[in-house]
Records
---
Amino acid sequence: MPGLPDLIAESQTTEEQFLRHIFVRDQMAEWSKHPLVMARAEGVHYWDVSGKRYLDGLSGIYVASVGHGNRRVIDSIKQQLDRLCFSPPMHGTNPLAVQLANVLAELAPGDLSTVKFECGGSEVTEAAIKLARQYHRLTGNPGKYKIISRYLSWHGSTLGALSASGLKGRKTVNEPLAPGFLHVFPPTCYRCPFGKTYPDCGITCATIIGDMIEMEDPSTVAAIMVEPIGHTGGVIDPPAEYLPILREICDRYNVLLIFDEIITGIGRTGRMFAAETFGVIPDVLCIAKGLGGGYAPLSAMICRESIADAFWGPIETNPGFVEGHTFEGNPISCAAGLAVLAEILERDLLTNVRVQGDHLRAGLERLAARYDVIGDIRGKGLFQAIEFVSDRATKARIPDGFGIKVGKCALERGLLCRFDPHWIALGPPLIVTSGQIDEMVAILEASLLDVLNPPPIE
């Protein structure tokens, strides 16, 4: 038998006989017809195993916050590898985890000040659900266990996070899911589920949540979990009043407000946290993806001081926060997180996000002025999307998976973006330049024309 590194050559990794030994997120039989296998990356570019270059208009999947091949992050990881790779999580932690927790406590708004580390977004949103239920139990409200979240949301793949999510395509195949999860319609102003028009709508999408809590019985509701800007429904950017109303409802009913900032956190919207962008402080804030920058798995749940205080007490009556994973607070991951945050702060990448976000919006607006299939533009900072329609006046959805066709054409032309049947999203690394934004928009336009004016079949 050959040595493990020589089992197959890199150039062979797109052959079906080898692809049959791995699951990816797409349908395997379809994906294997045109498999994408990346070999290396630098800055805002990928190269696949055949040498083709791609503009990373998606930060991998909103992860590569400070770009690929960042020397500060790589060197920090290398140095840590020589010092300590793993610390015993059942017995304590390590200096880098303590340092990173303190940095996050300093950066987070308000009194969000106590951190629980995990490895990924699913783990950390699930930890937030557990925290909410345990907090109410410790503070004399053991009946508060229900979690309210939104349709079209995505909070993760683990059972609790999936139960909180609102995507039928990902939920149905795994049902039955965990009990105790309720769903409401999201703030899709472009397609209001209540048939109303902003701003004369009374923000029904938010106020109705208070009615739901009343109908369910406030003594049974533990938390509301939302993404400040929803992703999977087509980058759902709420009206300004929406999150403040949720904050008031949570205060009124002693319900915790959880922000899933797996995507929007760590600079994506132009502030370190979307909580700052919208001016609303949640009780619990979840971050992942960009925190580790794609260099190591890392996520964090940050809760308010008053919530953390509930978990301090005599062990006879207070077990602390009952939640743990083998790789939580891993020193390699924390070294990456500290270096990523240093890059963002010292290079003032938050300003770059705001500047380039405005530049991206201007580019998308130019496309919308030229092509009436673009019905709406949504998002903030370097997290924006366009929705396709067949008629702007009626907002009728465009048929035949139009967005997927455009996205696949963009991929063929060397642009990595997020595409669904009716919308396309861009979320490049925070280091992106105006020239690179222009190139992304140009490829998107060319791809749009490919679909609108396909060549005749010979």
Note: The mean pLDDT is 94.
---
Amino acid sequence: MNGEANILVIDDEESMRDSCRRALSKGRNKVVAAEDGLKGLSMFEKESFDLVILDLKMPGLSGMEVLQKMKEREPEIVVVVITGYATVESAVEAMKLGAYDFIPKPFTPESLRMIVHRALEKRRLSLENILLRAELKDRFGEKVVVGTSRSMQKVEELVRQVGPTDSTVLISGETGTGKELIARAIHTQSSRRDKPFVVVDCGGLVENLFESELFGHVKGSFTGATETKYGRFEVANGGTVFLDEIGNISIGIQAKLLRVLQEKEIARVGSSQVIKLDVRIIAATNKDLLACVKEQTFREDLFYRLSVVPIVLPALRDRREDIAVLANHFLEKYNKKREKGVKAISEEAMQILKEYDWPGNVRELENVIERAVVLTKGGVIEAGDLWYYELSRETAAGSEDDEVKSLDDVEREHIEKTFRKLDGRIGEASDALGIDRKTLRLKLKKYGID
């Protein structure tokens, strides 16, 4: 078995409890034992376990009853059932109740370790499925290009230095500067690279559900809690939690987050069960958190806990020498993704890109290049391809309106027209525009589109 696991053994025979403890305590595993079902359930309710080894035949509360109660409380818990009265019927019944596997007494330490190894691997995969790990791997696989400017070279050097450490990092910068990209780069430079990278959008979560999203909840803990839910911190255990837009969380949640950083443990909403944490925290903000501290909207102690290593990302308009590098990178990316044959960006089009102020930063540049790759009819992106389709169509039809509009004006008109046409349906509008919902909401706010 690799790594560290918290294992609970429930068996009424002292010799069996000791045998399991000796067989499984190798490495960094923590093994605790209970001599009956009631004590085992009590321990299970107070502490989080990765695996339970459970005897079926015990006086008082039977193993079957214990298994059923554990599964009701935590459906994803992995339980290996052991018994000296092995029958096909008992094995089938235990599996129907949710046991991972069945092992009869007597068994060797090697066979126990083998089945426990498989069971822990099953738990790991279950949590990764919750996280949609496949999608994250796709994103990790993308070639990362941040630019060649001196300011971004310094950022890259910081990433290389801080990545292998476990230090908490605070990334600051305007919306669209690539804060999540840098956070992922730090994660992939660390020893946690094969563990989960979990994103928490602090600006997109509803305040009264924020605690549940972060820490999870147990079934019945509040109205609407119809099942036990794993929080983002628990899913990320062993990996990295990226707290995006950290400046948007309330003072109350800030206090709870500070306790997590200090104590390295959480409890699900509605539960007193303590879950030990081993996660790295990377936070990001587009706000001046020091100013927020002075305004007493952000806790000073939390600020210093988060900003052990601060990284500041410059706006794209402040590093214009990177625009061409990034534009060509996005051209290559969307050529492959959209299966197009666009070979280059014309000098005139590139000059327009370099002169624009990019209020949406790198994200806006990427959207413009993707749109141009899709809409251009030739092998080269020309100046006209940088505008939106509606304007291009009017120009092609010989419109008499020769007014030159800024990219901001054209973008506002196009977003507003699309948004109205789709009756304000955010999901459909973001798909039609080729941008994510978060970006669309920011642009709607920016242009005052209600």
Note: Residues 54 and 81 are 5 Å apart (CA to CA).
---
Amino acid sequence: MTRSESTIAYSVTGAGENLLLVHGGTGSRKHWIRNTAVLAEHYRVWAIDLPGFGESPDLPPGVASEQYIDYVYEQLQTLPFTHEPFLLGAFSFGSVVSSGLAIKFGERIKKMSLIGPAGFGIKRAIPIDTRSMRSAGNSLEAQNEVMRHNLKAIMLYYPESITDEMLAMHRVHINETRFDSRPLSLSPLLLANLQQVNCPLQILWGEHDQYAHPHLEARMQLTQDTLPSATLQMIARAGHWAQYENAPAINEAMLHFFSRAE
């Protein structure tokens, strides 16, 4: 792992073609905790913390949501592999960021796999039912209950997925998030950006993805109509955070996509 005041924090493992992994909102490279080891059996995997998240530095004053993708692109130039062709995997908010990065990197992106992407710009009539951590006060038990509720509402479909280990990870993510990902996640940037990208594209959704509004079938149909050459796939037994909740299926799908001849 490398960390400095001017570069992105990351972990790197494995050997072979370079694969960049980009996490989602209120997260870090630990969003890929169940994926990096398997992917690293075939690729050199670079899992990053985006600026304003995890162990990466804060954004400079004055960098707003509109400049965030440009800033991430500049920071990624400090990682040597980005000057050569590489593969890209991204999750949720990270998919919106990566859709803009792919335009900037151009032919350097060989293939791109997105999981539960945000950035469709479709407003919900009824917002997702989440609770404020402030409502829990200083009680750790009450805070865990709020986190458990919010993870079930947003990220993970099956209650048994929300373990004590998961709650501890999510607490760290909350405490280490200093950038508000919501404006980009709620924007309509994703499909507009991806229409400008020429590399092979895979998009995966958990069958119970809580973000797929109004329902997953409609989201997949809109995506296929807009991006007819993209490979779309529904992953069974998973919510929004599909690469955690059904890691074996996501790992298999990503490896198959990245390795197949186009």
Note: Residues 10-123+181-259 form a domain with the Rossmann fold fold (CATH 3.40.50.1820).
